[in-house]
Amino acid sequence: MPIWSAERLAALRNDTPGCERRVHFNNAGAGLMPRLVIDAIKDHIDLESDIGGYEAGDARAAAIEDSYRAVAELVGTRPANIAFVENATVAYAQALSAIPFEFGDVLVTTTNDYISNQIMFLSMARRFGIEIVRAPDTEAGEVDLDGLRATIDRYGPRLVAVTHVPTNSGLVQPVEQIGAVCREFETLYLVDACQSLGQCTIDVASMGCDFLSATSRKFLRGPRGAGFLYASDRALQMQLAPLFLDMQGAVWEEADRYEVVPTARRFENWEFAYALVLGTGTAAQYAIDVGVDAVAKRTAILAASLREAVAAHGFRVLDRGSTQCGIVTVEVPTWEAADFHRALERRGINSAVSTRGYAVIDYDRKGVEWAIRLSPHYYNTEDEVELVASTLAELASP
Ligand SMILES: Cc1ncc(COP(=O)(O)O)c(C=O)c1O
Predict the structure, then answer these.
(1) Burial of 154 (C-beta count, 10 Å sphere; 0-12/13-18/19+)
(2) HSE (CB half, 13 Å, CA atoms) of 130?
(3) Domain count along the chain
(4) pLDDT tens-place string over residues 53-76
(5) Are residues 278 and 343 in the same domain?
(6) 87 Cβ below 6 A of ligand 1
(7) Does the Cβ of 223 fall within 6 Å of ligand 1?
(8) Ligand 1 within 6 A of 194 CB?
(9) Domain that includes residue 366, residue range
(10) Final residue of a domain: which of 241, 265, 289?
(11) 193 alpha carbon to ligand 1 midpoint, in Å?
């Protein structure tokens, strides 16, 4: 039973100008923006050039507030728990800087956490003597919940940090169950939802997380250069605030005293690309209107049929995990990464190269230096899946 009728899918593709020109299987890089998002951004830039940047911000104040509302609704929270920032990395760094780490504290993470998160952890270890402990994985590839429970029990970490969907494979971590373990121990919990937002259902209450970071441009189909952070009521009540607050996040009361603002906006900076905030809000509303559950089902189905099709051509599919999503990674042993990427591009197929450097632990275990990353989204078609699989076979039969 198809998720949508052919007419519905055609309408969704019609909303997406980029569909006409490319077979876009790089949604994990940046999804194609729907027309509504493109118009929201362009309209605001036009307004800024017509009446002035600050004046345009004032004129669109209600629409800007509505962007907080849409993003909050998408992840199951209230606008007061959302902070808009420049990208997922900034959101993550803001949250990390708010955790009251002390010398010798432990941070528990996974073997599959995002490269930049791992580098931030190592940087904190180098400067502040934080110990990094990675929870064990199950045979299938995701975090082992009993192993995680034992790790938390043993180390009493200050923070558990988990990437929901990694950049380098189709693995989906059991973030709700991990959250339940964190709640058992009352441990702070930070989720990186950069690759999952827009392709998986995200509900911060079910995850029980204290912070969740995300970006606008990937499966959410918003613009580049925009992201947001969710901060829980618990985190706000604990007075957790970023190390480097600016005048958006705090009020300078006296020469030697400031007050942190009560909402998640303490994680923001004062200056915004308001066109991109409006684009993000529009993308969030668009995702809600399309239907997040249907999106999640269709994206997973397209990715599963792509895995099946490339495996039938003899390729090794590298994705692991009991639950898998819209990211498909494939070993192409007969080519150099950049050449293969270019060969696909010449045939109108957008893809990405995922190298060992993005996923040192995972790719060493898999014994690969690089993989071609193919990431379809709900607006792609079954015919495109067939085309991509047969093009891979034609170019690079293993
Ligand atoms: C899992 C994951 N987390 C975080 C990021 C960083 O996102 P941004 O580039 O918006 O900072 C990425 C980017 O690819 C990602 O894949």
Answers:
(1) exposed
(2) 26
(3) 2
(4) 999 999 999 999 999 999 999 999
(5) no
(6) yes
(7) no
(8) yes
(9) 6-32+291-396
(10) 289
(11) 9
